[in-house]
Amino acid sequence: MDGPPPYSPVDMEQTLLDSCQKPACYEKIVTLTKEPYDSLGMTVAGGMSSRGWDLPIYVTNVDPDGVVGQEGSIHKGDILLNVNGMDLTGVTRGEAVANLKNTSSPVVLKVLEMRPPEDGQQECTLPPCLTPSPTDSTKSPLPNDDYSPLWVSWLQLPRHLYCCKDIVLRRNTSGSLGFSIVGGQEEVNCNQSFFIRSIVEGTPAYNDGRIRCGDILLEVNGKSTWGMTHSALVRLLKELRGRITLTIVSWPGSLL
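The line above is the sequence of E3 ubiquitin-protein ligase LNX; the predicted structure tokens follow.
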């Protein structure tokens, strides 16, 4: 098995800079009125253990003639957080669909609207190893609902929607952990996350097999990386020995 390839740090810097300068997603409350026999008229995907990913529930398609389409506030790519007081985060797609179907009027949805990437953004800013591929996409089982958000879209999500994982690596007195990072204040002039830039074959990170190019590095041994400069985090990673716990989050499209 080959390790994730390196990519141009210039391209990655531009992606990070764009995310600093553009507005984040925002929550909205949508109230719908429907008859008992009406469906909401939308399809969803995502959820826990969705083709190997733990994702929020997101809208893949809206029927313009359905209840949701006629109201007009919910769009493809929106994240569904809550319906009539029932939490839709941390559930499977099947559980979310059941909760959405078993609703009575009025239907109150808490929704997170995702800012859509600009036309051509994927081609202009995504590094090669971060370009989504068909095998990475989280898709609805329905054949006509194959929409999946771009990798850059997931970066807008607030931290409480991240499904994080702890990865423990071990390093003796010599040798590298086996990955490089990009991000931090020095590189983009704003408070930005750190991303895994590349992974070296034969190292602890590579041999573990769970770290992907494009993963967000949130914590190191319980210490948050938010607000750190690039040089400070590099120095910390080089100095650590023994058992090292990395808290990361992965999104679809971060690995070819």
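Note on the example: Residues 1-19, 119-144 have pLDDT under 50 and may be disordered. The first strand starts at residue 26 and ends at 32.
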